[in-house]
Inverse folding.
C-alpha cells in the first residue's frame, strides 16, 4: 500500500492495503503523512524484502522504516554486494544490539510521524468528522487503493532487486535497464491515472448507498477528480526512491514525506482561513474550499515526488526516455511481482466492504470513515515507531540466517523481535484501553472536529489498541517468510485471513448498532491479526523446525500482568481527574499526562519486580550510561 512515507511496512496477512505511497515505498501503512491506510488493516510495503533467488541484494537499501542503511543491518550500509550484517555483539540473542539499532531508526522516523500526526489533526480540524470528512476520506482512499491494486505492491517488491541485478550484470551498470524500467512504469502509471479519472463518477457511486445525499455524492466525486492524479505521483515517488536506494542515497526519501505533510498542514490552515458557512456540510461547503482541499492534498504528493529530483542529479543519474522495451528483460518484473499482486489483490478485495460499511454508518449519523481512519492512525503511531524499527533491524539478520539455512537463528531473531516489541506494545495496549478517550480528545478536538466525534474516535482507538501485539507478531511472521524468499505462502494464507475478517465485519454490519460499527470494524482488524498469527505460526513452525513460543508467551504474560496493574491505577487516577475537570480539552489533557505517567512508572516497577529479562536489560543499559557509572 502506499504511504507517503517510507516508514511503513508490508501489510500483515489479512490486512487490506491502503494508504499514501512514499518516496521509498511504504506503507501505513500507518503512513507518516497521516493519510493512513484506510483501516481494513494496516500495511507495509516490502521495500526490504529479500531479493528473489539469483538476484543480489544491495546493502543499505531503504527498509520498511525508510531509514538509511536499514537493509544492511545494525553495522550500517554494506554497499552493493557488501557483507551481511554482523552478528550481535552482546548477549546470547543480540537483544542489546538490535534494540540499539532499532532505537536509532525510530528517531529517524519520529519527525515524519510527528508531522503526519499533525497533518491528520489539522485536516480533522478543518473539515470535521462528519459527512464532509467522510467524503474526503472516501475520495482520498480511491487513488491509494487503485495505485496499490494496479502497481504499488509490484513496484515496491521487485524494483529494487531488479535494479540491483542489472547494475551488477550489465556492462553499463544497469543504466539502460533503469531508463527502460522507468519509461515503462511511467507510461503504465499515466494510463492507469487517466482511466481512473474517466471512471471517477462510477468509483464514487460504488461506495454510496441509498442514504447518501446528492450533495455528498457530488462532493466525493469532485474531490476524487482532484485527488486521483495522486496515483501517478505515488508511483513516480516510489520509482525515484528506488533508484536512489540502489545508489546508496537515503536522505531525500526520508525527508520528502515531511514536505508532503507540511504541505497538507498548510492546506488545512488555508481552508480554515477561507470564508465559508457557519456549519460545514456537503451542501454548504464552497467551491473555493473544495479546490483548496483537493489541490492542496495532491500538491503534497507532487512535491514529495519532485523533491527527489535534485538528489538524483547529485548521484549522477539523468533520466532518459527509452522506448526499446522489447527484449529488455522487463518481463522478469511481471514474474517476480505475480504473487505480490495476488497478495495485494486479496487485501484490496477485503478492504472494499470495510469502506462501504463505515460509510454506511456515517451516512446514518454514526461515526464514519474519518473516525475509523483517525483511530487507526493512533493505533499505528506506536507500532510504527517501535515494531517497524525492530523489524527493519531484524530482517537482514533473518535473511542472512535463512540464506545459510540456519533456521535456528531465524527462529531466535523472530522470538527476539516479538519480545522486544511487546515490551512497549503491551503497556501501549493498556494505555489505549484506559486513556483512549482523553488521547483522542486531546489530539482531535480542534476546529470543526466536535467533542462527540473525538469521543467516538476514543472508543474506536480503545478497540484498535487490543490488536497491537498480534499485529506486530503477524508482521514478524510475514517477514520471516520473506526472509526465506517465499512470497507465495503469505499470498495464499492471506485468503482465509481476509475471509475471516469479512465474516466478522458482516456480523458487525448486521447486528451492531450504528454508533458502534466503527468500533466493531476495529475489532475485526484484531480478529484478522490473530487468525494470521495462528495460521502463519503453524506454517512457520513446519518450515523452521519449531518456534520459540514458550519464551515469547512467558515474556508477554509477565508484561501483561505489569500492564494490568499499571492500567488499573492509571484509570483510577484519570477517572478522578475527569470527575473534577470533566472530559473537555483541559480535563482530557491533564488526565492523559498524569494517567500516562502513572501507567509508565507503575508498569516499569512491576515489570522489573517480575524480572522480565528484556526490561531488566534495558534498565541495566540505562544505569550504565548514567553519569558516574
Amino acid at each position: 500500500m502506499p504511504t507517503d512515507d517510507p516508514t511503513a511496512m508490508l501489510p500483515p496477512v489479512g490486512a487490506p492495503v491502503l494508504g499514501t505511497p512514499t518516496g521509498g515505498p511504504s506503507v501505513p501503512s500507518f503512513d507518516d503523512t497521516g493519510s493512513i491506510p484506510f483501516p481494513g488493516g494496516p500495511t507495509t510495503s516490502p521495500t526490504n524484502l529479500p531479493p528473489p533467488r539469483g538476484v543480489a541484494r544491495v546493502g543499505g537499501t531503504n527498509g520498511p522504516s525508510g531509514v538509511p542503511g536499514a537493509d544492511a543491518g545494525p553495522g550500517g550500509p554494506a554497499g552493493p554486494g557488501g557483507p551481511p550484517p554482523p552478528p550481535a555483539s552482546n548477549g546470547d540473542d543480540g537483544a542489546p544490539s538490535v534494540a540499539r539499532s532499532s532505537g536509532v531508526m525510530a528517531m529517524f522516523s519520529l519527525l515524519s510521524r510527528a508531522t503526519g500526526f499533525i497533518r491528520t489533526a489539522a485536516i480533522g480540524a478543518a473539515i470535521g468528522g462528519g459527512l464532509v470528512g467522510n467524503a474526503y476520506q472516501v475520495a482520498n482512499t480511491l487513488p491509494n487503493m487503485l495505485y496499490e491494486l494496479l502497481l504499488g505492491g509490484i513496484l515496491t517488491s521487485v524494483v529494487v532487486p531488479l535494479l540491483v541485478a542489472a547494475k551488477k550484470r550489465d556492462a553499463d551498470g544497469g543504466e539502460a535497464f533503469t531508463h527502460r524500467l522507468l519509461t515503462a512504469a511511467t507510461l503504465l502509471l499515466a494510463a492507469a491515472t487517466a482511466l481512473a479519472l474517466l471512471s471517477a463518477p462510477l468509483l464514487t457511486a460504488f461506495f454510496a448507498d441509498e442514504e447518501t445525499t446528492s450533495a455528498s455524492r457530488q462532493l466525493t466525486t469532485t474531490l476524487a477528480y482532484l485527488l486521483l492524479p495522486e496515483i501517478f505521483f505515488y508511483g513516480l515517488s516510489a520509482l525515484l526512491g528506488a533508484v536512489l536506494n540502489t545508489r546508496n542515497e537515503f536522505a531525500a526519501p526520508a525527508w520528502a514525506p515531511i514536505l508532503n505533510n507540511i504541505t497538507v498542514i498548510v492546506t488545512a490552515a488555508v481552508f480554515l482561513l477561507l470564508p465559508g458557512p457557519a456549519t460545514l456540510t456537503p451542501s454548504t461547503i464552497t467551491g473555493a474550499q473544495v479546490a483548496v482541499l483537493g489541490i492542496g492534498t495532491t500538491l503534497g504528493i507532487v512535491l514529495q515526488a519532485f523533491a527527489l529530483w535534485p538528489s538524483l542529479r547529485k548521484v549522477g543519474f539523468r533520466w532518459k526516455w527509452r522506448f526499446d522495451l522489447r527484449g529488455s528483460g522487463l518481463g522478469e518484473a511481471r514474474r517476480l511481482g505475480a504473487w505480490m499482486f495476488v497478495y495485494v489483490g486479496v487485501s484490496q478485495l477485503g478492504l472494499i466492504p470495510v469502506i462501504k460499511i463505515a460509510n454506511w454508518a456515517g451516512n446514518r449519523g454514526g461515526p464514519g470513515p474519518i473516525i475509523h481512519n483517525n483511530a487507526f492512525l493512533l493505533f499505528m503511531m506506536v507500532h510504527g515507531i517501535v515494531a517497524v524499527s525492530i523489524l527493519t533491524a531484524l530482517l537482514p539478520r533473518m535473511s542472512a540466517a535463512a540464506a545459510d539455512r540456519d533456521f535456528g537463528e531465524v527462529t531466535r531473531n523472530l522470538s527476539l523481535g516479538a519480545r522486544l516489541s511487546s515490551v512497549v506494545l503491551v503497556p501501549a495496549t493498556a494505555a489505549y484501553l484506559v486513556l483512549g478517550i482523553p488521547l483522542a480528545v486531546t489530539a482531535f478536538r480542534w476546529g470543526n472536529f466536535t467533542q462527540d466525534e473525538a469521543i467516538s474516535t476514543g472508543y474506536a482507538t480503545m478497540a484498535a489498541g487490543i490488536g497491537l501485539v498480534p499485529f506486530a507478531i503477524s508482521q514478524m511472521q510475514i517477514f520471516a517468510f520473506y526472509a526465506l524468499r517465499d512470497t507465495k505462502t503469505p499470498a495464499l494464507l492471506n485468503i482465509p485471513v481476509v475471509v475471516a475478517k469479512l465474516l466478522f465485519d458482516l456480523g458487525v454490519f448486521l447486528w451492531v448498532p450504528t454508533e458502534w460499527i466503527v468500533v466493531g470494524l476495529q475489532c475485526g482488524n484484531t480478529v484478522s491479526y490473530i487468525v494470521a498469527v495462528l495460521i502463519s505460526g503453524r506454517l512457520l513452525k513446519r518450515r523452521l523446525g519449531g518456534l520459540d513460543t514458550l519464551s515469547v508467551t512467558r515474556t508477554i504474560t509477565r508484561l501483561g500482568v505489569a500492564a494490568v496493574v499499571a492500567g488499573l491505577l492509571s484509570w483510577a487516577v484519570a477517572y478522578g481527574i475527569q470527575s473534577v475537570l470533566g472530559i473537555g480539552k483541559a480535563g482530557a489533557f491533564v488526565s492523559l499526562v498524569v494517567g500516562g505517567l502513572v501507567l509508565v512508572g507503575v508498569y516499569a516497577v512491576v515489570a522489573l519486580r517480575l524480572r522480565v529479562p528484556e526490561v531488566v536489560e534495558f534498565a541495566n543499559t540505562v544505569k550504565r550510561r548514567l553519569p558516574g557509572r
Summary: The radius of gyration is 23 Å. The chain has a mean pLDDT of 79.
